[in-house]
Amino acid sequence: MPIKSAPFAGSVEFRDGFAPHPRLSHAVFDFDGTLSWLRHGWPELMCQVFLPYYPMRPEESAEEVRRELLAEILSNNGRPSIVQMKQFVERVQGRRTEVPAPEELLHQYQSRLDQIIVERSGMMLRHQTRADEFVVFGARAMLELLQQRGLKLFVLSGTLEERVKQEANLLDLARYFGGRIFGSPPDPTRFSKRAVLDEILAEENIRGENLLCFGDGPVEIFHARELGGLAVAVASDEDHNGSGRMDPAKRSQLIDAGAHVLIPDYRDAAALVDAFCHE
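RESULT FIELD:
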């Protein structure tokens, strides 16, 4: 059963297998949904792109189909978006229905998402809103606390690396990482979060027990646990930043991926760092 610890003001779950990692020296963060809230709502947006092409059967309801598609979309959270496109095309083809190619679906999705990002970025550039409105609640405090503890910080994202770097600068997050921001190359078939994590371990000459990993997708959580690191799942709310509520679909999949700890955001940053590093 999840354990709720008294010092925490928010909703924090410690799962079976959690233990402090007193030798933590490096922290790896996913970007979208883990640090940045600039793309919030992207799962629903992707679902909206898919639904017009989905051939419903008579016994299916629209809400049931939507839930299934969202679950499948989130199951690949952390991978390049073309993966979700290919999986959806396979699903539709299994119903013997024509559907646009994955690349066309990706173009439709990316065009809509880019428009939203431009609008949100413009609000910050025009000083109509603060950058922290698009940073996951409490994330900056967590980054600063980890830096104070001497941990070296990295970003590892399935989003195009150029975009991640631009957005990290826009949100004033890049300064915490000293250039250690890694994303997907233009050819997403050449990208693997596990491969990048292996490179970090080798180049930094550290072991899995030295690794603290934060993510809102199953991919990075699974690999962190697989490598012997501490896997912290951020089941962030896609609709209301700072609500303190975990997204239930994310939570379920992150538990299945092997998360040691689940949080909705970083409101308990100080208590969490103490729990992670406790001797």
